[in-house]
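Predict the structure of Kirola.
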Amino acid sequence: MGLTGKLLCQTSIKSGDVFYEIFSTRPHHLHTMTPEIKGCDLHEGEFGKVGSLLIWKYFMDGKELMTKDRVEMIDKEDKSVIFKVLEGDLLDDFKIFVTSIHVDTKGEDNLVTWSFDYEKVDESVKDPTEYLDHVLRITKAIETYHLDK
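Done. Here is the predicted structure for Kirola.
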């Protein structure tokens, strides 16, 4: 078992462009779409700009958690966003934790791919598979929110 790893999951949605826009430029609106996210506050920079620092507050397994992330990349053409955790609860177990979101939009069928690149602090730390379930719940909640409007 290694200390570094990569996990990914994919799911189909109908509102791919909206989903990408939310994570790339309007993450502070997520708390209105899903109970998993308590808030996303701008710490430094501007929403929608690479290098900006965001404070995420979220619920997982009945606990309120927090991370401070830097926006590493926003690619409008590829509809991809990358966040790197700089501080917060995830760094109790991981030296490095990077989240990538990619939306492949082709007609009515859109595919969201989430991936996590990480390095554990030691061998006793489990792979962060519970985060895959977490982001899938977030994705479905956003989809439901937009389809019900």
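The CA atoms of residues 18 and 60 lie 24 Å apart.
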